[in-house]
Amino acid sequence: MKTRDRIVEGARLLFNEQGYGAVTTAALAAHLGMAEGNLWYHFKTKRALLEVLGERFAAAIDQRLDMRPDADPLASYVELLRAMMAEFRRFRFLYRDQAGYGEHADVVGKRAPEWLQRTFGQLEAHLAALVDAGLLDWPRQRLRDLAINATIILRYGLEHYRELGEPTGEGSGTVRRTLRRHLTLFEHALTGDAALRLHSAIDAIEDAALAA
Quick check: is 39 in a domain? Predict the structure, then answer.
């Protein structure tokens, strides 16, 4: 791995663990086992690191937003949850520490409204596919509201737990709890088998991530 990429990856891991605001460049250099001057050679400020991570965050979101339901809508929804869980884990600090680092990376600040709107549409399409398959009993005219409420829970779940003072780092289970909480919006309207499969899928995704 190139030095620049190693710095970015090390910063991501440390920001996820400790929070962006708590990590100094000296601490990051020590974590990477390099002189602080070497770190400054590649990134003059911590903000510059945030910008690079913001670009990688944007690429991950754009890739996830391309996912659409297919012939097996329940399996498609499971894959969407898998992608979201990976997104939440990889960029945990961006979902959790907004109050701690102030302004967003430029790309996040500029594109956040677009991402939210597209996520509303993505979730609505997946939920509509579940309705069409007879797996979800929900009025079609209210699917948009359901998608918006689900997005709010998913998007701000980690920050919600942080504000409650609960652990939000690796191994805390907050990603799994966030995904489970979004299911409480509509699991009563799922068929019994579909609800069980989604809960089992969330547990399986979490277990696989922890074992990796």
Answer: no
Contacts of 20 (CB under 8 A, 6+ apart): 46, 50, 93, 97, 100, 101
Alpha helices in 66-173 (DSSP H): 73-90, 92-96, 98-101, 106-132, 143-163
Within 10 angstroms of residue 64's Cβ, the number of other Cβ atoms is 19
pTM over 0.85: yes
Structural tokens at position 183? 């299911």
- Contact yes or no for 51/43 (Cβ under 8 A): no
Query: What are the two backbone dihedrals, phi and then psi, of residue 91, each rounded to the nearest 5 degrees?
Result: -120, 45
CATH code, domain carrying 151 = 1.10.357.10
Q: Give a yes or no: residue 32 inside a domain.
A: no
Domain coverage including residue 150 = 56-211
SS3 123: helix
Contacts of residue 3, defined as CB under 8 A and 6 or more positions apart, other chains included, come to 34, 38, 42
Q: How far is CA 27 from the centre of its chain?
A: 25
Evaluate whether residue 165 is within a structural domain. Answer: yes
pLDDT one-digit tens code per residue, 95-117? 887 655 445 688 888 888 899 99
